[in-house]
Amino acid sequence: MKPRHTVSIDDETSAELNALAAKPGVSKTAIMRDAIRHYIRYRGAHALDESLRIRLDRLSDGNNLIRRDVDILIESLASFVRLYLTFNAHTPIPDKATQAVAHARYEKFVEQVGRQVAGRKRSLGTKGEGETDEQRI
What mean pLDDT, rounded, does the chain reach? Predict the structure, then answer.
């Protein structure tokens, strides 16, 4: 035996329900049953989707920050190695002039890494079209 439910609806909705049920082969019970099933299935799914979407957005934002930080670290290491191998020859005992040159090189290094990260250029990886190793240094 099917359980019985009593439902109260406003006049406008009742008129729309009567108009739909006036078609042959359609009953008010079938229309309401389908509407309730649809509401229950999709409302629950939307609530779950919304809570998962919020969590996934947070994870995605965190992942993007980590990726950015790793890109900066990789770019810094690649630039450092290139600069070290390019400029570092046997250096005399550090004096004030040598320390000043080292400081200037470090400042240039930081500026270059900033430019490359901001411009999405990479020291490692594939070369752009028409780009040679000399242009990348």
Answer: 78
